[in-house]
Specification:
It is a single chain. With 124 residues, the chain is mainly alpha-helical. It has two domains: 13-84; 86-124. Helix content is 79%, strand content 0%. It has helices at residues 12-22, 29-41, 46-53, 57-84, 86-123. It is elongated and about 120 Å long. It starts with 11 loop residues before the first helix and ends with a helix.
Length: 124
């Protein structure tokens, strides 16, 4: 009978964690890029940069890794894209069809010139 009825209290450290989680700062992509580039420049130590920005070093290194991997994928993707993209294949197909049309018109033009030259000689 020593139990009291009423709301169950959470430990103080858990309450603090929940408050911090709810009020955690959200960084924009531009802010993350600025911070990562600042770290890559090496003007200050990563520890100093993280203290100044209010982030833990682990977060900086995660952002840095994601930033570099995204750049690497983008650069690799650009070279692969030019060779295999559907758009490029369609453009090549269209260029081929246009070349065929030009060749047919040139041939037709030559035939017409020959026939008019031949017709002119008969009448002379």
């Amino acid at each position: 009978m020593g139990q009291k009825s009423g709301p169950v209290k959470k430990p103080a450290d858990q309450v603090v964690k929940e408050i911090r989680r709810a009020t955690r700062r959200q960084f924009t992509a531009e802010e993350k890029i600025r911070i990562v580039l600042s770290g890559l420049r090496g003007e200050d130590s990563i520890a100093e940069l993280c203290r100044r920005e209010g982030i833990v070093q682990n977060l900086y290194y995660r952002w840095s890794k994601e930033f570099l991997e995204a750049g690497k994928k983008r650069l690799a993707g650009d070279t692969a894209r030019a060779a295999s993209s559907d758009e490029v294949k369609d453009l090549r197909r269209e260029a081929g069809a246009l070349k065929e049309a030009v060749a047919e018109l040139l041939l037709e033009n030559r035939l017409l010139k020959k026939s008019t030259i031949g017709a002119g000689e008969d009448g002379a």
